[in-house]
Amino acid sequence: MNEDLLGKPISELTTEEKNFLYKRLLELFLNWNGSENASETEDRFETQQAVFYFLNRLDKE
After folding, report:
1. Which sign, positive or negative, has the C-alpha torsion 8, 61, 26, 44?
2. Max intra-chain CA distance, the chain
3. Is the pTM of this model over 0.85?
4. Could you tell me the superkingdom of the organism this chain comes from (predicted)?
């Protein structure tokens, strides 16, 4: 990950940086969702909500 992104407000991210984060969040979620650590339905729902919240923030700002 580009260390320049750490602590940078979403509103200051470039389109390229947002796309990078968007892709990595989706990749992380999809990898986790298929793992043994994702066995609890409630955990899946909460994690899904958290990921989609941040994806939505990236889209809006």
Report:
1. positive
2. 37
3. no
4. Bacteria
Angle at 14 between CA 28 and CA 6, to 5 degrees: 55
Which residues 6+ apart lie within 8 Å of 57 measured at CB?
Answer: 10
The helix/strand/coil state of 5 is: helix
The tokens describing 36, both together, are 């043994």
Residue 4 tokens read as 């320049």
Distance separating alpha carbons of residues 58 and 11, to the nearest angstrom: 9
C-beta of residue 6 within 8 angstroms of C-beta of residue 13: no
Rounded to the nearest 10 degrees, what angle do helices 15-33 and 41-60 cross at? 170
